[in-house]
Amino acid sequence: MEVQKRNLIGNDWDEVIGEEFGKDYYLRLREFLKGEYGCRKIYPKMEDIFCALRTTAFSDVKVVVLGQDPYINEGEAHGMAFSVCEGARVPPSLRNIFKECYEDVGATVPRHGCLTGWARQGVLLLNTVLTVQAGNSKSHAGKGWEMFTTAVIGALNAREIPTVFMLWGRDAQAKQELITNPIHKVLVAAHPSPLAGGRFFGCRHFSQANAFLRENGLAEINWELTKW
To answer: Is the pLDDT of residue 179 over 90?
Structure first.
């Protein structure tokens, strides 16, 4: 039986992965989320779950930054990996990202932690799991999101547009086997969390991404967030 496509994102992602929303695993996930949002504090807000896909259309993706799951503290998560809402404190993981970005390409460390400026240039800020219970990391792992984000990565892998995949941490690296198209660039690093013991530092993913884009005739990413 053909699975009906659904329009939930609002851009070309609906055509690419719209059928996922009608599959059995996603319908079970949706029922689970209804219960969770109804009786628990869940991040991000329901309307922000697909913020990463809404902000960076399928046809615009040049770089994928893949993380774990959303931030677990109030007022931080807004649907894009590692990014926080405007006005929120900059979490330790994001501070480490900014430090590496400064050391790598000289980008000024911003006072805010909203990464929308990167997303609007074609950086898809995607978590492997898109929701989480407040204060409880990985609480929504194994509920179906991994199948959904596998579909996202698979669709990007199938494109004939050279794309950079930055896989940060074990959960992200588990998706590496999906990236089989030789035209893409895969960069692997430890999660930027302080718990990784600083092993993220020195990965130089930002300069490597721009070098790859430049070599393939694509516009580089301006990592300077203070200009956005």
So the answer is: yes
CA dist 139 and 17 (Å) reads: 25
* Residue 2 in this model has a pLDDT that exceeds 50: no
Q: Enumerate the H helices of the chain as residue ranges.
A: 13-17, 24-39, 51-55, 92-105, 116-119, 145-158, 170-173, 205-215
Q: Say whether pLDDT at 197 is over 90.
A: no
C-alpha 159/C-alpha 170 separation (Å) is 25
CB 11 within 8 A of CB 54: yes
- Amino acid at site 41: K
Give the active site residues: 69
This prediction has a pTM of 0.95
- Non-local CB neighbours of 23 within 8 Å, separated by 6+ positions: 3
> Does 227 have pLDDT greater than 60?
no
144 and 23 in contact (C-beta within 8 Å)? no
Alpha carbon distance 127, 222 (integer Å): 22
Phi, psi of 69 (to 5 degrees): -145, 175
Distance CA 105, CA 222 (A): 10
How far is it, in rounded angstroms, from Cα 167 to Cα 182?
Answer: 16
Write out the H or E segment, with its range, that includes residue 88: none
